[in-house]
User: Which sequence fits this backbone?
């Protein structure tokens, strides 16, 4: 029998302690993004269904909650990812010619959880850079992503890198139906050699050999040299490996504390990414805490094909992995109608202090804040005294 206070599966309230940490981190990450020159946008939670599904790749449709607009009769969706909305804003509302850096932070909703312990209502923070096709934008996004994890206090971060162009180069000249391509990328991600062998049975020998080699191409930076030997001498393959090596060299210098890894068969989001893709992992979480990459086709559905690269993360997940932060120090004050007392409390709050007034009859209750000082009367004045 259901109760009114029970919530749906993988949906949860955020209670004061965690809500405080989420909000503090949200403010810090948005300020950090602004320090990189990012401008904040706040897209709507609801949009027309066709807009939300534009350029998101396979699998997005089943993630969306759908409903009918009572005003227009059109199908609406609750966003499952903010990136298509930001692409629409860049393409139609801003319509700038140069580089545009945008950031956002807001809830999204998923019909199904991504994992056993994940929320169906993530609080998505992300950054997008539009208008620059060079690796400089990729590097900036990677640095910003790693700075975000460092600001959250995460330790033992590992950045996993790959590139969608590798498979594009390997499959050049081979025509595959969308279903066959999806099965192939799934087999590569699972490193299922038997499935790969069956799926590539009718392909040219060079393509088949490369597909069977990809699952073993994972590890450190040395994997890139091995891939150059074992994969076809194709322009897309050569460009992808060179770009990955360039990016790894810069990241190793700027973030020497981060472990860099490569899994050239992990093509998650292959239908979405057009170049370098990455995922960040941290101690205490089996899944990626952050994903991103280059997706130059994301704006095509809005009539403006424009270079784009970015990343996103779930603040709720990030907070569970981050070390606990101390409570903010506060001042405890008595409640009273005395004008000088009320003026003293107001003055402290205007100075940025947290002042907790003890309401009548609750003097013995435990403080909900870390009250390390109290407001007391000394002679004719109200002063703050250490507890």
Assistant:
């Amino acid at each position: 029998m259901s109760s009114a206070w029970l919530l749906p599966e993988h949906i949860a309230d955020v209670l004061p302690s965690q809500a405080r940490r989420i909000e503090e981190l949200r403010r810090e990450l948005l300020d950090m993004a602004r320090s990189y020159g990012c401008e904040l946008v706040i897209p709507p939670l609801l949009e027309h269904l066709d807009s939300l599904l534009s350029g998101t790749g396979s699998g997005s449709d089943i993630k969306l909650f759908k409903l009918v607009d009572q005003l227009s009769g059109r199908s609406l969706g609750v966003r499952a990812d903010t990136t298509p909305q930001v692409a629409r804003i860049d393409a139609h509302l801003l319509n700038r010619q140069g580089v545009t850096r945008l950031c956002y932070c807001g809830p999204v909703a998923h019909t199904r959880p991504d994992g056993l312990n994940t929320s169906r209502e993530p609080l998505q923070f992300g950054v997008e850079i539009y208008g620059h096709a060079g690796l400089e934008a990729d590097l900036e996004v990677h640095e910003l992503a790693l700075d975000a994890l460092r600001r959250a206090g995460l330790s033992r971060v590992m950045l996993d890198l790959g590139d969608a162009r590798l498979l594009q180069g390997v499959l050049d000249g081979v025509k595959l139906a969308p279903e066959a391509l999806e099965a192939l990328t799934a087999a590569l991600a699972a490193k299922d050699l038997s499935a790969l062998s069956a799926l590539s049975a009718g392909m040219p020998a060079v393509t088949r050999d490369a597909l069977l080699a990809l699952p073993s191409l994972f590890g450190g930076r040395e994997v890139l040299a091995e891939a150059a030997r074992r994969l076809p001498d194709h322009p897309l393959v050569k460009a992808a490996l060179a770009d990955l090596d360039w990016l790894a060299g810069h990241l190793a210098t700027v973030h020497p504390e981060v472990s860099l890894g490569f899994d050239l068969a992990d093509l998650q989001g292959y239908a979405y990414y057009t170049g370098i893709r990455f995922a960040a992992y941290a101690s205490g979480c089996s899944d990626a805490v952050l994903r991103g990459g280059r997706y130059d086709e994301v704006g095509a559905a809005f009539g403006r094909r424009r270079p784009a690269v970015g990343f996103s993360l779930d603040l709720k997940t990030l907070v569970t992995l981050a070390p606990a932060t101390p409570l903010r120090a506060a001042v405890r004050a008595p409640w009273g109608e005395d004008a000088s007392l009320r003026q003293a409390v107001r003055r402290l709050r205007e100075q940025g202090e947290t002042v907790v007034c003890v309401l009548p009859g609750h003097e013995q209750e435990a403080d909900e804040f870390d009250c390390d000082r109290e407001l007391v009367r000394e002679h004719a004045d109200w002063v703050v005294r250490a507890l």
Observations:
- The chain has a mean pLDDT of 92.
- The longest helix spans residues 16-35.
- The CA atoms of residues 87 and 299 lie 5 Å apart.
- The two ends are 50 Å apart (CA to CA).
